[in-house]
Amino acid sequence: VLCVKEEWDGCMPVPPASECGGNEGALGSVDGDGMFAVMPCVDPTTQRQMTVVRCATRAQYEAVVDRQLAAWKQRWRDETMPARGQVLRVFGERLRELKSELGTLIALETGKVLAEGEGEIQEVIDICEYALGLSRSIAGQVLPSERRDHTLLEMWHPRGVVGVITAFNFPAAVWGWNAALALVTGNAVLWKPAPTGNLIAVALTQIMHSTLEELKYPKELCSLVAGRTPVGQWIADDLRMGLVSFTGSCDAGRKVAVAVAGRLGASLLELGGNNALVVHADADVPLALDACFFGACGTAGQRCTTTRRVLVNEAIYDSFVHALVAKYEQHVQIGDPLDPKTLVGPLHAAASVERYRAAISRAVQDGGTVLVGGSVRADLGLQFVEPTVIGGLAHNHALLMNETFAPILYVIKYATLDEAIAINNQVPQGLSSALFSLNMRNSWKWLSAQGADSGLVNVNVGTSGAEIGGAFGGEKDSGGGRESGSDAWKAYCRRVTATVNYGMELPLSQGISFTN
Ligand code: UN1
């Protein structure tokens, strides 16, 4: 299971801290053949250590990137786009065959429920198919030239190696969006997964390696370096990275952005959200209730698109909140993520449980009321918590301005749509927003420039669960990057503006005459 081990045979002595990608990592013995900096892979349901993954050392990292660059120049940069698309086609087919096994591995490693684990693999399959389509359709353009007998063109070329740093909560799909588009546009991909998402990363990388080798390409085109923050820093600081794509918290994203900008590099940031779902007086209430339930409880509240705030119009506030609480009471099924009946698995890490506990006790201290949930379910395991709804806090209370990555939903009462839009937009993040209304004026206003200021803006659809066909990403502290569909592929390319003169003269632009 240790891909690093496969590539780096033999014993590796413990490297000095400055050269090791596992700063907070345990030092462990692997197979009794030496000491390594390792990361434990822990099942969040039982806290059982399943295995360990060795952290890359600085020397290993350097060698991996060198080999990637060589493979890229030799076999990938100049390959045709339809041929690159075939790699994604075959890879996607393999994933289709293994969807249930890979979905189960995600559930085991992250605590996500089975249906969502499989859904994530489906998302990778979908983006592979999307990339296959792009491989026959990506187009530059021909622009009008002001000079006679000249053609003005725009073309898109690969950037080189794309560093992809992913978060624990979508340990497969986020890499999939990045890798599929980066590969089809002609880049090599270096993946640093979250320390709690290493197993699915190893599995996907091995499937990608066998696909590449079967199609006679070097496997180094898609490499994996496991590690903690130092490995992410090496990627951010590395001039050889044509693009750094980072998914994670706003705080970590800010550090990556500064490091990459410091070397004038390109970054693509997909950071936190603080997403509101607005239920207007003219809403289809059962629809809004379902959307709220999935948006707030799905993935145990650990999506960047999770519904964190529900703004309810004063005319229906009491009845809506009553129905929402009843829905939680009847349908929240917490338990083993591998049991198909479970809707809410454990939080992925012990630290998340602490953050959940701290947010709820602060809310209560400051006058909030727990309407449903609110407790850690120690009877089920150390990392199980109840999805929680809290009322009674001001819309600009610190807890509602920040993202707590746990299933806590705050309810807020508002009077007019303008007020709801203002509350929706007052937070620093701007990833996803949803309005439930059957009124055309309200809906279009919400979607307009006067409306929600996030990257994803929905009507009668919840905040989470975006399809791959649209561009995915947010504004403000959510990072500003766009991944997945639409023209997100452009981020993985360098743009070339080319002018070709097929005439006998050399006219200068702007009509300048440079003769005497
Ligand atoms: C994330 O949580 O980082 O829209 C991504 C969604 C998913 C992606 C979430 N398709 O909820």
Description:
The protein has 15 helices and 22 strands. With 516 residues, it is α/β, with parallel strands linked by helices. Strand 14, helix 13 and strand 15 (408-414) form a beta-alpha-beta unit. Helix 3 packs antiparallel against helix 5. The longest helix has 21 residues, at 114-134. The chain starts with a helix and ends in a 15-residue tail after the last strand. InterPro entries: Ald_DH/histidinol_DH, Ald_DH_C, Ald_DH_CS_GLU, Ald_DH_N, Aldehyde_DH_dom, ALDH7A1-like.
Keywords, please?
22 strands, Aldehyde_DH_dom, EC 1.2.1.3, disordered N terminus, aldehyde dehydrogenase (NAD(+)), Ald_DH_C, alpha/beta, NAD, 15 helices, binds 2-aminohexanedioic acid, five-stranded parallel beta sheet, 516 residues
